[in-house]
Amino acid sequence: MTFDVHAIRKEFPILGRQVNGRPLVYFDNAASAQKPLAVIEAMSSVMRGSYANVHRGLHTLANETTQAYEDAREAVRRLINARSVEEIVFTKGGTEAINIVAAGIGASIQPGDEIVLSVMEHHSNIVPWNFLRERRGAVLKWVEVLPDGSLDMESLGKQLSRKTRVLALTHMSNVLGTVPDVKRAIEMARAVGADVLLDGCQAAVNLSVDVQALDADYYAFTGHKLYGPTGIGVLYGKRAKLEALPPFEGGGEMIETVTREGITYNAPPHRFEAGTPPIVEAIGLGAAIQWLERQDRAAIGRHKQALLERAVAALHGVNGLRIHGLAAGKGPVLAFSLEGAHPHDIAQILDRQGVAIRAGHHCAQPLMSHLGVSATARASFALYNTLDEIDVFAEALSKARSMLS
Ligand SMILES: Cc1ncc(COP(=O)(O)O)c(C=O)c1O
To answer: Which pTM does this prediction carry?
Structure first.
C-alpha cells in the first residue's frame, strides 16, 4: 500500500471545484469531512439496485439490504476492534450515541451522584449529562486543562471519587486537538468504580482506536467526519454494559414481545435501534470504512502530522497570532486567535480566497471561557489536504492580517 495524496484527491469529486474563483482549500474537516466516490457510489448503488427495509422481509431485496447493513456493522466492529457486532449500535450521530448512554445511566442516578467531564468537551458530551443534573440531581465535576492544552491529570485525580458514576471524556478535542491519555484516565476511573464513556467523534478518523485495549465501557462517534455520510453514528458499548442499559427510544424492531399487559425488549444492539434505522447512511459509513481499510493509515497519519507541523510553523510567523493548544501528540486541528480580528472576519476573508475554515465557539463554550475568548478561528486537516494548501492558507491569513489591522 502506498499513499499518494494527489491520487487520493481524485477520489473526492468536490475537491475539484472552485470557490470565489480560486481552487477550494477545504480546512473544515473537524466539522465534517468530504466524501470519496466509494461512499457516494455505495449509497447510490443500494438505492438503485437493492433497496428495501432491513430485518423485516423474506424477499430478496430485503435480504440483500439487511446483509449490506449488517456488513457495515461488521466494518465498524473492525474499525474499533470491538469483540462482537452485538456491541455496535447504529445511531443517527455521535450526539445521539452519547444521549443513549446518558439517558440509560440516568435512570439509576441518585441525587449527589457525580459525573466527571473535562473543560474541553464538545457540548454533545456536556448537555446530555446536564439533563441528569437538572432531572436527577447529579453533580457535574470539571477536569481542568493545562496551559499547553493537555488534560490536567492531577485535576482528574481530584475530581474522581467513590461518588463518580461516569467519566465522560473526549478522545480528541475538536478545538485543541489534544489527545488525552485516555488509557490512564480509564484506569483511574476504574479505581473508583466509575463507568467511562469516550467521545471519539474526532479520534475515530485521526487515531487507530482499539476499544478492547482501551477498556472503555462506551465509545461514541459519528460517520460524517470519517468520510461517511451524515445521519449515521455509532455507539460501542461493552456487551454487559449494553445489556444492562435501558432502551432510549421505543418503537418497532427494539422489542422482543408486545402484549396488552407488557413489553419485553430485544437484545443489544437492536434494543437501541428503534424504528427504521438510517439504512443507506449505515451502508455509506461501511463503505467509508472499507475505503479507509484500503489506504495506508500509518502513512496517512504521518501526512496529517506533516500538514499540522507546516501549519504551526506558518502560523508562528503571523504577527499577533495565538494558537490554542499545542499539547504533544495532538491531532490535526488548529484553533487560533488573531489580535484585533474577529474570527468571523478572518473566516470570511479566507473564504474570498477559496479557503474554508471555521469560526465560532465550536460547541465548546466552557473551553472558550477557559481560554478567555468567545470564539476562535479553526483550521483542521484531512488526508486529502496538501502541503501546498497550507502555504495558500498561510498567505491568505497574512492578507487577512494586513486587512484587519
Ligand atoms: C468532539 C466532538 N464530539 C461530538 C460531536 C458531535 O457529533 P455529531 O454532530 O455528528 O453528532 C462533534 C462534532 O462536531 C465533535 O467534534
So the answer is: 0.98
